[in-house]
UniProtKB/TrEMBL annotation:
Gene name of the encoded protein: man1c1
One GO BP annotation of this record: carbohydrate metabolic process
Name of this protein: alpha-1,2-Mannosidase
Native organism: Sinocyclocheilus anshuiensis
Subcellular location: Endomembrane system
EC numbers for this chain: 3.2.1.-
Family membership: Belongs to the glycosyl hydrolase 47 family.
Residue numbers binding Ca(2+): 566
Disulfide linkage: 411-443
């Protein structure tokens, strides 16, 4: 390199200045690198306003927030009218979030009153009497929980005390939160007010224990969201937003796939010890979408939606064996860990949330629609079987080998396939309704001489919908069969579904009702009943709610407006309305 000598400047002086310039430039470049690099290591809550991409169903929203590009999002700011340019892309239309969420505006989004014209009262006296019986069962279960286990998570009715368990990370009152919407829907207003008061004064979210992300989401987040949408009580909104924030650290993994267990105090998360190779479970990370979209809806914070859309993005990218979704996925590598496929435990509600995401988007989430019907095609090709006795069932798939077993948890699929019948491939509606009816019939047949069903039943070695193992013979007040009865009644109005539901009511009364509540039983085939001493919170949230709806008119929580999460908490359809003299749409729940 040749240095030109400048007039009046010595060589030594010039060398000194060049050295200074070099040091200054080196310092400046390091500073710039540090500043830009820092942006990529800031926490999500600081970065989320850096022009995030937010997907509402099939709509993708790009937000440009001008001078606020690097400001931290806050709930207060979410209430301010936002001066921003939004572009929403959809195959159907363009839409925009609008400004602050309004409960009054939300109510105008509903096509029908949530509780119907007359609280869903059926016109015939027999159905009304049956509905009143279910309401009495709910009050009996609630009164005994209040008397013996108030503030605990569940009631032990034989020993008349409470049970906390280890699923909820120190959170208490699971039966209270799970019961809020059931009490309200049934018109048990004194009991509902008791539950609301407990949530306001005693639901402490500052716990410091290990919690199941899945269970906390479907029971607490789902229960609080539903209670808010049905009643408009702000305390439910405040609590659910606080709890939702506490779940976000579970997504801090290399892939964004959340781990199954989280400490709600520290934010530390890890996988279940029994999960293969530290994997996450399909039915757990795949059962967040409905609730998290509503958390974004209420708060204006797109981060909740971004988290679950990232899960969907990864699932669409990776290869699926024979089009099937295995139950175990590594949150580190993003690869399947085992090729075990089940529509029952470990897999079930993932598929449920695909079709319900589509329905909750007012049928605009075309990606969810495509994923669901592609999964259904693979399920029909690989898992749907017919027994020698003519029963249709869903086998499990283990690396290409079928296990001819169906779990009670898989019996929700009759209702799932039924509600998805209208929007599949052309000409397939009746096929799906027939398949839904066949599976629901099989699950009814699995209900033993006690008219209660085992945890799992088999179709091999001469067995027809029968539990052949002692360890599969228990019944813990599960709702899935009754859930399918309710959906199939709404879709077909075939009276057999109400008759089957009444059989279940009589069986619950005969075999599960004890002096201080309801209890599961250890063997559905035994002539002498042995109780397990547990009144599960989902019995109040799901089993009794689905029975009550089965014996109600269809305008009580109409399916055009409401989608039930996997704990039977109703969440409203998210609608966008067309702006006059424009091709744009806005969220009708925003002001």
């Amino acid at each position: 390199m040749v240095l030109r000598k400048l007039p009046g400047v010595s060589a030594s002086g010039m060398g000194l200045r060049l050295s200074q310039k070099f040091v200054f430039l080196l310092f400046l470049s390091g500073l710039v690198t540090l500043c830009f690099g820092a942006l990529f290591f800031l926490p999500d809550t600081v970065r989320l306003n850096r022009k995030p991409s937010v997907t509402h169903g099939a709509r993708t929203v790009e937000r440009s927030v001008g001078s606020r590009a690097q400001e931290e999002w806050s709930p207060a700011r979410a209430q301010e009218p936002a001066a921003r340019d939004e572009r929403v892309t959809s195959a159907a239309h363009n839409g925009e979030r609008g400004s602050a969420y309004s409960y009054e505006a939300f109510k105008t989004c509903l096509l029908k009153p949530a509780l119907g014209k007359n609280q869903g009262t059926p016109p015939d006296s027999e159905t009304l009497q049956r509905r009143e019986k279910v309401k009495e069962m709910m009050k009996f279960a609630w009164d005994n929980y209040k008397r013996y286990a108030w503030g605990n998570n569940e009631l032990r009715p034989l020993t008349r005390n409470g049970h906390l368990g280890n699923m909820f990370g120190g959170l208490r009152g699971a039966s209270i939160v799970d019961s809020l919407d059931t009490l309200y829907i049934m018109g048990l207003m004194e009991e509902y007010e008791e539950a609301k008061e407990w949530v306001q004064n005693n639901l402490d979210l500052n716990s410091n224990g290990e919690a199941s992300l899945f269970e906390v989401n479907i029971r607490y987040v789902g229960g609080l969201l539903s209670a808010y949408y049905l009643t408009g009580a702000e305390i439910f909104k405040q609590k659910v937003m606080e709890l939702g924030e506490k779940l976000l650290p579970a997504f801090n993994t290399p892939t964004g796939i959340p781990r199954g267990v989280i400490n709600l105090g520290s934010g530390t998360s890890w996988s279940w010890g029994w999960a293969s190779a530290g994997s996450s479970i399909l039915a757990e990370f795949g059962t967040l979408h409905l609730e998290f979209l509503h958390l974004s809806q209420l708060s204006g914070n797109p981060l909740f939606t971004e988290k679950v859309m990232n899960i969907r993005k990864l699932l669409n990218k990776i290869e699926k064996p024979h089009g099937l979704y295995p139950n175990f996925l590594s949150p580190v590598s993003g690869n399947w860990v085992q090729h075990h496929v089940s529509i029952g435990g470990l897999g079930d509600s993932f598929y449920e949330y695909l079709i319900k995401s589509y329905l909750m988007s007012d049928k605009t989430d075309q990606e969810a629609q495509k994923m669901y019907y592609s999964a259904m095609e693979a399920i029909e090709t690989n898992l749907v079987q017919k027994s020698p006795g003519g029963l249709t069932y869903l086998a499990e798939w283990r690396g290409g080998i079928l296990d001819h077993k169906m779990g009670h948890l898989a019996c929700f699929s009759g209702g799932m396939i039924g509600i998805g019948a209208d929007d599949g491939p052309a000409g397939q509606r009746q096929h799906y309704l027939d398949l839904a009816a066949e599976i629901t019939h099989t699950c009814h047949e699995s209900y033993s001489p006690t008219k209660l069903g085992p945890e799992a039943f088999r179709f091999d070695a001469g067995a027809e919908a029968t539990a052949t193992r002692l360890s599969d013979r228990y019944y813990i007040l599960r709702p899935e069969v009754i859930e399918s009865y309710m959906y199939m009644w709404r879709l077909t109005h075939d009276p057999k579904y109400r008759e089957w539901g009444w059989e279940a009511v009589e069986a619950l009364e005969k075999h599960c009702r004890v002096d201080a509540g309801f209890s599961g039983i250890r063997d559905v085939y035994a002539s002498t009943v042995s109780h397990d001493n547990m009144q599960q919170s989902f019995f109040l949230s799901e089993t009794l709610k689905y029975l009550y709806l089965l014996f109600s008119d269809d305008d009580l929580l109409p399916l055009e407006d409401w989608v039930f999460n996997t704990e039977a908490h109703p969440l409203p359809v998210i609608r966008f309305l067309k702006i006059a003299s424009s091709d744009r749409f806005h969220d009708c729940s925003a002001v």
